[in-house]
Each structure stands twice: as structure tokens, then as C-alpha cells.
Design goal:
The protein is α+β, with helices and mostly antiparallel strands. Among the domains are: 133 residues, Ku70, Chain: A, Domain 2, CATH 2.40.290; 50 residues, no CATH class. The strands form three sheets. A seven-stranded mixed β-barrel has the order 1-2-8-11-10-9-7. Strands 3-4 form a two-stranded antiparallel sheet. The protein is extended and about 65 Å long. The chain starts with 10 loop residues before the first helix and ends in a 21-residue tail after the last helix.
């Protein structure tokens, strides 16, 4: 059954929450807290200018995805059900005020270069406040390994709507993706701008030194030609399961199971442990493929012996 921690005074907190609620609603992005439908945040993650040569306009970036509907847990003291506070602590002197902390870069074990907030703010690039379009490329030229998070780029002032629509329409007509840079979360990021409907979508792109190349990841996989009959059966299974991408038909089943667990525990229901799913003990890969084909693509476990993995030489 659900348990509550001791009541506390929340008058000021409730007043602030009501004020924030009214402000968010007035901007048109707020939705009720009890809805699972993702909505555009009332606060942009970045504000500045979009510039193409001598043409510029004020813009703001908003996250195109939301995790607000995800289940999150707090750490509690099981004896009081009070939420635990994470207090910064110096191992020698004890608790430290978070506001007094500074940032340090470790150059060797327990040796740091210490940087103040003022020193960090002094490292300013033009891209801190400007997305400067540098190049135009075909979408197919950007390997999917480099695509990262999507954002909506919106005009931030009526005076810039015309320039914004000109840039968007030029991208539509040329069929190109624009590349630029922007400083977000203390890092300069490469971004791709894509026209979509009436606006622009911005994707952060990974830099070259962030991506592990496939040839390095797959280096130890042995070169082998698969059995063509097995491949033919696998192709038929693929054809059976072909269909359109319909994201609304896919749900996070683990998240749903967690919600059900929380609901039942809150009602005080007795919880029953589910029996583990038995695996179909199929040893032969060909047999597993044939069974999958007959069952119209449903998963059949296969334990096929393969060549031993090479041991990577050190040094």
C-alpha cells in the first residue's frame, strides 16, 4: 500500500507553481500534467540568431522529444519514507555548500586545473549566440551514425519571420541540408537544419572524434559466406514481417509493466511473481529458421555453434 512521508508546509511552493502554470499556459506550450502526450516546452534550450551569409533572424531551439511521461523514482529512507537529500561532501572537511563549488579538470591523479565560472564564461565563440550556416549537403551524405538529438527551430520574433521562411523555402527548393554550429550546454555542436512543414528541424550531429568506426567495432567478426538456403528463408521471414513504420503501434512494455506494478502496490494488492518464459530449445539454425517461417516470423531461440572468436593481441 502507498505510504506518505510526514506533511510539510507547501504554501509558498503552491503559489509559485500556480504562477508558473499561468505563465506556461499563456505561451501556448503547456499541457495538463496528467497527459502522456508530449508537448513543446515553454522554455527554449537556446536562443540566438540564424544566419545565412548577410541574412539573419532571431530564433529559438526547443526539444523535439520529451521524457516527461517516463517513470522516475526517488531514493527514500525506508524507516521514515522521507526523500534523501544528496549533499556535496568533502572527504576531509565534510559538507560543502553547492553554490561554493568550482569546476576542475583532472590533469593527473588528484591534480586539477581549477576554473571559475567567470573564466568559463570568458570562453565565448560567435556560435554561442548564432547558428551560422556554413555548408549545404545531401541528406544521404550524412551517415546515420552521426545524427543525434532533434530540435524545433522557431522564429523568436515577428520581425524575423520573413527571413526565416526565405531560408526554409530555399532549403526546400534545393533539397539540401544546411550545416552550421552552435554552442549548447557548454559545447560547440555541429548541427543539421532540415525543412519540415512550415518550419525547420535542427539535429545535433556527432563530431568525427565521437564516432567509433564500424570497421573497428566489427574487426573480430570472421569473414564467412552464409548458407544461401538459410539466407533465402531469412528473406522470406523479412517479407512476412514487412510493413510501414507506425511508431504509435509500439509501446514501452517495460514502462507499462512498471505502471501496473505501481498501481497494484498502491491499491495494496498481493503481488505475484511471473513464471520465467521458457526458451524453445532449438539447436540447429536451419531448423530455427524453418520454424520461424512457419510461425510467421515469431522469435524462435537458436543456439548455433560458430567459429571461436579471435583474441585481440595486446601491444
Amino acid at each position: 500500500m502507498a505510504q506518505r512521508s510526514p506533511a510539510r508546509k507547501k504554501t509558498k511552493t503552491k503559489a509559485r507553481a500556480k504562477t508558473n502554470h499561468r505563465a506556461a499556459t499563456s505561451r501556448g506550450h503547456h499541457k495538463p500534467a496528467n497527459t502522456n502526450e508530449p508537448s513543446l516546452s515553454s522554455r527554449p534550450v537556446w536562443q540566438g540568431s540564424l544566419r545565412l551569409s548577410l541574412v539573419s533572424c532571431p530564433v529559438a531551439l526547443y526539444g523535439a522529444t520529451s521524457r516527461t511521461a517516463d517513470i522516475s523514482f526517488h531514493l527514500l529512507n525506508p524507516e521514515t519514507n522521507n526523500r534523501i537529500r544528496m549533499i556535496p561532501t568533502d572527504p576531509d572537511t565534510g559538507p560543502v555548500e553547492r553554490a561554493d563549488l568550482v569546476k576542475g579538470y583532472e590533469i593527473s591523479k588528484s591534480h586539477y586545473v581549477v576554473l571559475s565560472n567567470d573564466e568559463l564564461k570568458a570562453v565565448k565563440l560567435e556560435t554561442t549566440k548564432t547558428i551560422d550556416i556554413e555548408r549545404f549537403v545531401d541528406e544521404k551524405d550524412i551517415d546515420r551514425l552521426y545524427w543525434n538529438d532533434p530540435y524545433y527551430l522557431l522564429p523568436n520574433d515577428k520581425s524575423g519571420v520573413e527571413a526565416y521562411t526565405v531560408i526554409r523555402e530555399a532549403l526546400v527548393q534545393t533539397g539540401r541540408i544546411a550545416l552550421g554550429r552552435v554552442v549548447m550546454h557548454t559545447r560547440e555542436r555541429l548541427v543539421a537544419l532540415e525543412p519540415r512543414d512550415k518550419g525547420l528541424i535542427v539535429y545535433t550531429l556527432r563530431m568525427g572524434d565521437e564516432v567509433i568506426q564500424p570497421k573497428d567495432a566489427f574487426e573480430d567478426i570472421p569473414h564467412a559466406r552464409p548458407n544461401h538456403q538459410m539466407v533465402d528463408i531469412a528473406r522470406k521471414i523479412i517479407e512476412q514481417q514487412e510493413g510501414a513504420f507506425e511508431p504509435e503501434k509500439f509501446e514501452d512494455r517495460y514502462e507499462n509493466a512498471l505502471r501496473d506494478l505501481i498501481r497494484r502496490k498502491e491499491k495494496g494488492e498481493k503481488l505475484v511473481t511471473a513464471e520465467p518464459v521458457e526458451e524453445d530449445n532449438v539447436i540447429d539454425l536451419m531448423e530455427a529458421l524453418k520454424k520461424s517461417l512457419k510461425s510467421k516470423g515469431r522469435t524462435v531461440a537458436a543456439k548455433a555453434p560458430g567459429p571461436k572468436r579471435k583474441t585481440r593481441k595486446s601491444g
